[in-house]
Write the structure tokens for this entry.
Amino acid sequence: MSLDKITDPLHIHHWLGDMEADYIYTLGIAGERFFKEIKENGKIMGAKCPRCNVVYVPPRMYCEKCFAKLGGWVDVGTKGVVHTFTVATVDVDGKKLPKPEIYALINFEGACGGLIHKIGETTPEKVKIGMKVEAVFKPSFERKASINDIKHFKPIE
Amino acid sequence: MSEKIKHYQGEALESADIKEGRVPTEKWRPKVKFAWSAGIAIGKFLEELKKGKIIASTCSKCGRIMVPPRIYCENCFKPTDGWKYAKDTGTINTYSVSYLAADASRLKEPIIVAIIDLDGASEGMGIIHRLGEVEKDEVKFGMKVKAVWKPREERVGAITDIKYFKPIKEETP
Amino acid sequence: MFGKKRVAVVGAGLTLFRRRMKETGKELSYEASKMALDAAGLELKDMQSVVMGTAPDAFDGVHMKGEYLADGAGAYRKPYTRVFVGGGTGVFTPLAGWWHVASGQFDSCLVVAEEKMSSCYPHPQYAFTTIFDPILERPIGMNLIWIFAIEMHRYMHKHGIKKEDIARVSVKNKGNALDHPCSQLGAKITVEDVLNSEIMAWPVQRLDVSPTSDGAGALVLVSEDVAKEITDDPVWIDGVGWCIDSTLWTNRDLYYPDYVECAARMAYKMAGVKNPPKEIDVAEPYDPFDYKELHHMEGLLLCKKGEAPKLTAEGVTQRDGDLPINPSGGLLGVGNPIAAAGLMKVCEIFWQLRGEAGKRQIPGDPRTGLAQAWGDLMQYGSVIVMRR
């Protein structure tokens, strides 16, 4: 029996199943502090490596270049610049979205790296690389120490 | 470990820290589904189970009759060259009385699981299955057992077409 | 000597082992790696390559976990390899590190092992169910403990060993772990405590089992030329061995681990060890369950088949005995973050041979030590022989 023309796994003798598991992830030593600042103070922080003269966003416990332990945290502000972006038309399961969604990597001044987040309060045609944006936070009572405490970034002039 | 080292890193948490939200966390459940291909050998094995039979594959070079069947002999790496029916009886090679279910939750009534060396296959060729119609204290190493099958109309071509293995009562002389 | 260059371990690091830690996997890897580098007096830039050992992605819950952990293990823009052989990983990772240096390709290698099992709910044991064949085994409702229980029962039956004989290992190891600064479950218990503990899957009871844990460990490996420059006290990796059996575990007689013997013979041949019970001064065989220490002692040819319980009862395997086994406290006492657990054992041999094990130090002047890890679906053995 030739099997090489079959592309659907359900057309050959098979067994169905899934790999069930639930996950609860801790934020980590650095992560917890980063998200607490977002939740409680509406601040976006970075961590500075004095040896490499680099400020990392998101902040981490160690410098991956020189392996020093990082202690000096700095406020990088809530304004950033679009480094690159994409417009999504399907969701994570491949179903069509009711409206296209814009996702961008946002850099912060003086910092290395950035945050991936949504761009809101605009349309895809208006988004440009190099565009200035600002974080829009959820009201503080709704924040959970999560990346979604920031609703989106909106364009500013 | 130094006697030279004074401080070991690590910030331990209690289960309550997570449950009571003292420590922020992110939750996730991956949605991953699979349709595992049974393959050539196990595909045939499942078809035979549906018929109420246990099939083995043979390697004439090594002289082995193997269950579960496979298309290659892992010993000599040659393709297996035949099929042969094994019996649905066997002896208990080893067993355990478990109070734990698959998700690590506790069971009131234990499950008895065993490796059963099947008659008609090479020595030591076992499959894993449950034991039934037997009390946990009655189970013995080397005990003879027989498969209890689901009725024909309920069999679908699965290892669970065999409900469990039960002891064969010795005939009283 | 096998390989182009002799390889030395010059630093070791270990985090605490605990049921759940706040640190992410990256942070755990960093803490152990930094400690090992500091101990060796070296910096990250001195490391030419990195090997990471970490067991199923399903525990941490991050797919391609090796890549995720890489920067925490100092692998930023370096040659990097991740290895994974289930529980065998902790000893296999330094073996893979050994290849990097012994081949002459690199002069140094940072070896890291990490596991964060606490991310998996309701219990990490549940992620283990995916190790079983989805068609022939999972529909039976397999729990991981069952396969250990089945192997333990077969071992007991074959040699007529009683539970008391096995329980002594748990008592010894948990007691030894009281002297280990990182230990999760060091405790003073008795054989009765083990025999009265909750039955999980007979014959396995709660105090026969090691816990699940979060933790990480690291080693710094360098070539002979580098070792001479940076330390007076290198510990040499003189023997490595590894071997795998099939996942057709129901077709095997489980009372004896042939694959552990294969790996041991390979390592002994390389190290020139002809009489293991006499020549090995200290050994750390893998002990996720108490009976496994005995099972592996026999597989490692440290005693005859069926003889290990007798040696334990006679005190031969205590720290002050003729053949100290698991002076660290093993997995039973220190903890079992799958990959890091085996590396903990290699760290222990390193410290024992250097005389740096503090309260756990075995007397005499140990020169040759062995660590072994075991894993996957009852099928894998990795062995390392170290000498000073």
Remarks:
- The radius of gyration of chain C is 19 Å.
- Chain C has 15 helices and twelve strands.
- Chain C has a mean pLDDT of 94.
